[in-house]
Amino acid sequence: MMATYPDDLYYSKDHEWIRVDGETGTIGITDHAQEQLGDVVYVELPAVGATFEAGAPFGSVESVKAVSELYLPIAGEIVEVNAALADTPETVNSDPHGAGWMVRVSIKDAAELSGLMRGAAYTSYVQDEGGE
Predict the structure, then answer these.
(1) What range does the domain containing 41 cover?
(2) Would the N or C end of the chain have less CB density within 10 A of its end CB?
(3) Is residue 1 part of a domain?
(4) Is 53 part of a structural domain of the chain?
């Protein structure tokens, strides 16, 4: 089945997404990424207040198949983590673009968003990668 990628999100080539709300960005992994991982059993997230550059690893997702690094699509400071994932990591599989979000960041430089893809471009990227 062809996944659909919401157009209100920005996507990275590392298969993370960011939803921008003013100065804040909510970040998670894409439907394609969770599908590749399989059943997520653990999510390791950073502490609130930690700062990261664009492309830096900020945590990891552990599935029955593998452990994968999570990369921040843009630079920022962690202002909130999705604590619910500690008890229900499988939310990443069931609702990757919604309740399965991972962190919220204060956006350091909104211009970095221009280097990310929108839904249609990400869909093409995944297809070109041989994904779907």
Answers:
(1) 9-123
(2) N
(3) no
(4) yes
pLDDT in tens, 12-48: 999 999 999 999 999 999 999 999 999 999 999 999 9
Q: Is residue 70 part of a domain?
A: yes
Q: How many domains does the chain have?
A: 1
Structure tokens at 4: 């659909």
Residue 131 lies in a domain: no
Q: For residue 28, what are the contacts with CB-CB under 8 A and spacing of at least 6?
A: 16, 17, 92, 96, 97, 100, 101, 102
As to burial, measured by CB atoms within 10 angstroms (0-12 exposed, 13-18 middle, 19+ buried), residue 25 is buried
Tokens 């960011």 appear where? 18
Strand partners, 28: 17
The whole-angstrom separation of Cα 57 and Cα 44 is 11
Please indicate, yes or no, whether the overall pTM of this predicted structure exceeds 0.85: yes
Q: How far apart are CA 117 and CA 10, in angstroms?
A: 5
CA distance 75 to 98: 21
Going across the sheet that includes 40-44, the strands are: 40-44, 57-63, 67-71
> Angle CA(36)–CA(91)–CA(88) in degrees, nearest 5?
120
